[in-house]
Amino acid sequence: MTFLRPLQLAALCSLALPLAADAQRGGGPRADSASNPIQEGLPLKPERTIRFTTDVGTWMSLDVSPDGQTIVFDHLGDIFTVPIAGGKATAVTKGMAVDAQPRFSPDGKRIVFVSDRKGAPNLWHMSLDLKDTVQVTTGRTDQYDSPEWTPDGRYIVASKGNNLHMYHINGGAGVQLNAPPPAPAAGGRGGAAVAGRYIGAAFGKDPRYVWTARRGTTGQWTYNDPMGGGYSLVVYDRNTGEFSPRGTRWGAAFRPTLSPDGKWLVYGTRHDQQTGLRIRDLETDQERWLAYPVQRDDQESRASRDVYPGMSFTPDSRNLIATWEGKIWSVPVAGGAPKQIPFTVDVEQHLGPEVKFEYPLSDSATFTVRQIRNATPSPDGKKLAFTALDKLYIMDLPNGAPKRVSDAPGLEFQPTWSPDGQWIAYTSWTEAEMGHLWKTRVAGGRPVRLTQTPGAYQEPVFTPNGQRIVAV
Predict the structure, then answer these.
(1) Is 246 exposed, middle or buried (0-12, 13-18, 19+ CB in 10 A)?
(2) Per DSSP, which regions of 272-324 are E strands?
(3) Residues 104-120 pLDDT 10s
(4) What is the DSSP letter of 306?
(5) By C-alpha distance, which of 158, 106, 165, 145 is closest to 312?
């Protein structure tokens, strides 16, 4: 039997990146401590570069500067800025790492973002004049998402795994906001832990309260989680340490975004299989659709970059800036059609070495089959029926030569013996005719097709008297 030529594996490459060398920008990330040094740069070195210009993106999180003049957004692992009116985007970060989810500091001079430029996702912030970059967290295996500045600009609130944490801008261990209660004393009762997943921290006009989305008690992800038991909106009181519910819908509620004037809340939800953005008047609690439909949310998966991309109000609270369909949109709060903000990005994607290996395969007439399926002994134990290379064979035990049951085209599976050992029934499959159920004499002869209707037949078995065959 002859096989094809030696196989070649296709090159595997990543299309996500950011700035790897902080030295190029001035300043550099600090080490956690002398006993826990941080490796400088990613170990994978770029050997290829892809360059192109585009006016679309995918899952772009954005923010609007405090002066309302600039949008910062992520695009294929780099961070860019563009004027609020649109135009040519300017790269803020480049390189092999993945930089994402940027947010402006309250004074508009810095951005915080998530980056794996040291080999694992962590929180960073950098000045927009590119003079310094600061590493805030130094986790090795943690997942950080959706960072946000506190209104005073001194701390950063972000999701670490399933929990909300707050970190000083100069680093440190931080503090978990949704900390579980102390363990109960012996024989006593303790309060229930604050369970679930918290993601998408947001501040409104009052810095006392942190809005966020919480996913029930299922943590990050679970199979077949009902929509009504998914994400809901809660508020964390920084004075009391308590959480209060602020929004639950069939279809979930996620990515809370608040207007600077404290009047509006926008969040994502699902309705009739489509994702949309709801707006709530916080003075009256009345709601309506602001934009529907938008792009698909990420409820069914792990929401590794939040359930919906980051969005932002303009400083005058009159428009929401958000992304869907690969574009950036300005949505008037008072109502009306969204207006597209045009942008173009000069993409420069650095890729690692091409992963390509050659595996020689023998062209010899015979070879050893490395996978046997559906091996089934005959009732007297003297023969064995089995599938190899998707064809059905019979051999004498223990060392007989395998023989094909038929020369018919197609695939043959799941042989089963008649009680007297004279017949074998099996299933087949061809692309043209689909599947059928067959029987054939062990002594030889042409197989007989037993079924008239094509389908996916499985697991045939003879009845004890050998007169019928039962199959799925």
Answers:
(1) buried
(2) 274-281, 287-291, 312-313, 319-324
(3) 999 999 999 999 999 89
(4) B
(5) 106
